[in-house]
Design goal:
The complex is a heterodimer of chains A (about 210) and B (about 400).
Chain A lengths: L2 E5 L3 H14 L4 E5 L2 H13 L6 E4 L2 E2 L8 E2 L2 H9 L4 E6 L5 H10 L8 E5 L4 H22 L1 H10 L8 H15 L5 H10 E4 L6 E4 L4
Parallel strand pairs in A: 1-2, 1-3, 3-6, 6-7
Antiparallel strand pairs in A: 4-5, 8-9
Helix pairs in contact in A: 2-3, 5-6, 5-7
Chain B lengths: L4 H4 L3 E4 L3 E5 L21 H17 L12 E6 L12 E4 L5 E6 L7 H24 L11 H15 L7 H9 L15 H11 L1 H9 L7 H8 L16 H10 L11 H7 L6 E5 L4 E3 L8 E3 L3 E9 L6 E7 L8 E9 L4 E6 L1 E2 L6 E6 L7 E10 L4 H4 L2 E9 L1
Parallel strand pairs in B: 2-3, 3-5, 6-9
Antiparallel strand pairs in B: 1-2, 4-5, 7-16, 8-16, 9-15, 10-14, 10-16, 11-12, 11-15, 13-14
Helix pairs in contact in B: 2-3, 3-4, 4-6, 6-7, 7-8
Classes of the chains: A alpha/beta (about 210), B alpha+beta (about 400).
Chain lengths: ~210, ~400
Amino acid sequence: MFHILIVEDILNTLEALRDLLQEEFPNALIETAPTVAEGKEKIRVAMAKNQPFNIAILDFKLPAHKGHNPEVDESLCQEIRSVMPETLVIHITAFHEDPAVARHITKYHTGVNAPRVGLIQKNARWPEKLLGEMKSYSIEEQMNALFGPKAIASARSLESGRIGAGLTQTLAKLIRDIATYWNDLDDETKEKVRDRFSISDKQPPVRVSLRLDI
Amino acid sequence: MRLQNNLTGTMSFLQSEHFRINYSLRNPREGQGRGTSGVSGTGGLIEAYKDGLEMLYRELTSSPMSRPELDQITEVHILDVASIFPIMSASFTSEDQDGVPYIVLPCRTSDPTCEAERQRALATAVHEATHVFNYRKRPLSSPYSARWGWFDEALAVLMEMRLITDYRDHFRFLGDWIEKPELSLDSPVANYQAGQFLAYLAKRLGVEFVNRVWMESEERETPLETITRLLSAGPKFASADPDESDLFASYCLESWFLTDPASRMYAPDLYERYGERAITESFVLRGCESVGTNERPEKKHALDHLACRYYRFYPKDGIKQLSVELHSFDEAGRSPLKAELAVVTNENRLGRVIPLRPALDNTNILVAHVNQVDPHEHDHFILVVTNCGVNHRFDDEKQFTIKALAI
């Protein structure tokens, strides 16, 4: 299940973002938190259940607790870096040229074990850009889990694929997602998909099937 | 599904009444050997696949399930699955661009004997052929199929249980069912284990009921919604009301008693293989002593929707009375948690079941009393805490503590 965390202190924005993502990712489990403390609790519970977040959308300025003033927070990224480094962190900011933002990216999102970061500039098209980034990431993650290096690690615990969701359902979900998101995917992701799947996109609906001839 | 010509040139096929099995030989009498992409030719793997596929076809199209016949031959491809999905040698069902389902089965197996390979091949074929039948009602590409994934797998496992009775291939994943009762029934990581719940449903209501859930579901329903709708005149699916018997909590309770022939989850062979289901904590009870988790806030336990936990109490030193409490953290009367205290007899069978009811002074506390503990009848007690909530958004992470007092 696609697991998403949103930490945002402006409740209207939080709810609007949650609704938008729930509509675009209807089977995703979306968790929200308005403060740093509540965000950390969500991370703790997710790790306890072995369901790390795939994507964390974090505001830059957040109150530590309810009633506190929002301040630049780096502790959530620090926490994610330490316990779920494979999570894609997306920061949405109106201050993308702020040196503090650049410092944060360097400090928490560079290096071998750092979580990937997406920086979305808050302009008129930011929701579209956010969704495009999330969809491409979702497809790439699923592709990695089935065909890439991550497949080896997951296969060890799968015992011939007969534990967990199973190959039929995992593949079916990926095929459904590719068909649904196809027009929003970036070119690089599309190319990776075509390596493994036959795509028929001349006219809607997009049809996707696994290539067995490789 | 049409494979590209670079494969079809060396392929053989075996046609049965309802399936066409495409494969290559590792060592053909003539032409290029297919190496790891070919079937060894020993042990009758292809024949076993054919037998399993047709066995399932007969089962699903005859009474009591009586599914309609498939309207075309199903293509089956025998491949080195690891050449597509690294390391995995699993079988799968998918669909081609025309929306026609096909099956892929592994040409290589690691079973130590030909007989083990044959039995596993039968089970695998039964499993995948079930998906093809299920596909007819719910194509895998449908956006509403995602929520039915667990039921699709569970139904395929149920068919394995019914048809492959000499060799319990499905036991390989029941270790998780034994060890993780706290996983939700419809958790995406517990699809195969859910076959146990369908087996319970089949025992209670007949396998035709399980089949109806799939066949009579409405497009946008979830499996739980369909089950609830079809049960409208019968028992409730899940209810936290201590005075209301429900299927899910009964399933959790009876699942503890794998060696009791009266239990609908009786499975001594499963018990022999894995032992009893995992308990969360065991306590020894002595006179005038209180035990449990509620004196230790760090020992709060939690349950997600449609999952359960087991606690065990051993009475010692001739105690006469016992009371057990569950403290939940929900608004009074709104908790989805149900708790039942079951007597385990000296023969390891299910004895009396005492539901925990709201305490008079505080409805956040559920309590049960045993007024006469009889050491000749009561070996120990099992407390089964079940989360009867069905919605992961509202019913997950329900925290509670337990406490027991002996006199």
